[in-house]
Amino acid sequence: MNILITGGAGFIGSHLTERLLSRGDRVIVLDDLNDYYAPAIKEKNLEQARKSDRFSFVRGDIRDMRILDSIREKETLDVVVHLAARAGVRPSLQYPALYADVNCTGTMNVLETARLARVNRFVFASSSSVYGGNATIPFREDAPIHEPLSPYAATKTAGELFCRNYHDLYGISCTALRFFTVYGPRQRPDMAIHKFTAMIARGEEIPFFGDGRSERDYTYINDIIDGLLAAVDRDLGFEVINLGESRTTTLSQLMALIEKHLGKKAILKRMPEQPGDMARTCADVSKARRLLDYKPSTPVEDGVARFVEWYKKQ
Fold first, then answer.
1. Model pLDDT for residues 144-201, shown as the tens digit of each residue
2. 294 catalytic, yes or no?
């Protein structure tokens, strides 16, 4: 298959690119290499992929329809995997207009490209943040999502609605995958596990928000990629599907795991809870098991150990 991955130079996108290439697919990555974090990191993420003659890279912004048109006119596309987005809850509180522009206008552009290219399947990266603060634990896909806690969450909810719209209007098979706190090698440097590991290693004081009892469903990158590959290969009509480990870890427990594997104690600066942060996330993955044969297999204890080992080698 010929597969376009937007945001393919990022953490999740680069792992997906390598897995698709390894099984024989052709992959076109579109990424603007923006400065949300160092573009050099994203360039390095693609080192392995660039060795394949079935890989091509286009630098461009999903808000620029001319770039998307040029890809569509040059390539015969079977599947679009839309990962490109402005990520992060807290930054979205500072730059809501930017998040709306990239995540809403950009998503509409990518969907329109998929329609014009007559692709078979469209896979959209959504987020557990869409559940807001009131969903029943564990989060089920049929829970109401009308009370987002951040502009970022609101844009991901909008993206799911755009996907539903394009399925209903044009018959595109659209699967929206709600990712739950993905981590592992190449994780973005601003995300908790990477950030905490780096700061502990350097002996820096860590801003520690809340009392440490907030909980997250941490999902290892290999499990996420398994779910993504299954979505790429299946025509499901329109579906929204959770991808998580279905198990929670408190912030304090996470910190202790990182300390254990680094062999070094954290220096904490206690801070109040942050606006927009969810107190707890936990995925019900029964739908993913049924529709995608999803079988998450990496407990957080093993995943953090692997991440810290990767970090030491960098």
1. 999 999 999 999 999 999 999 999 999 999 999 999 999 999 999 999 999 999 999 9
2. no
Q: Which two tokens stand for residue 303?
A: 């995943």
Pairing of strands 121-127, 238-243: unpaired
What are 145's two structure tokens? 């999502």
Give me 179's structure tokens.
Answer: 């990712």
Residue 175 to residue 170: CA distance in whole angstroms: 14
Catalytic residue chosen out of the listed positions 131, 152, 220, 294:
152
Tens-digit pLDDT profile for residues 96-145? 999 999 999 999 999 999 999 999 899 999 999 999 977 688 999 999 99
> Is 198 contained in some domain?
no
Q: Which helix (H) or strand (E) holds 182?
A: strand 182-183
Per-residue confidence (pLDDT) for residue 278, from 0 to 100: 74
Q: What is the CATH number of the domain that holds 229?
A: 3.40.50.720
Residue 288 lies in a domain: yes
d(CA 102, CA 121): 22
Domain that holds residue 227: 2-182+220-246+283-297
Number of structural domains found in the chain: 1
Peptide linkage before 185 cis (omega within 30 of 0): no
CB 231 within 8 A of CB 173: no
Instruction: Indicate whether 258 belongs to any domain.
Output: no
Would you say the pTM of this structure is higher than 0.85?
yes
Under a CB-based contact definition with an 8 Å cutoff, are residues 119 and 80 in contact?
yes
For residue 312, give Cα distances in angstroms to 10, 14, 220, 309: 20, 20, 18, 5
Residue 263's identity, in one-letter code, is: G
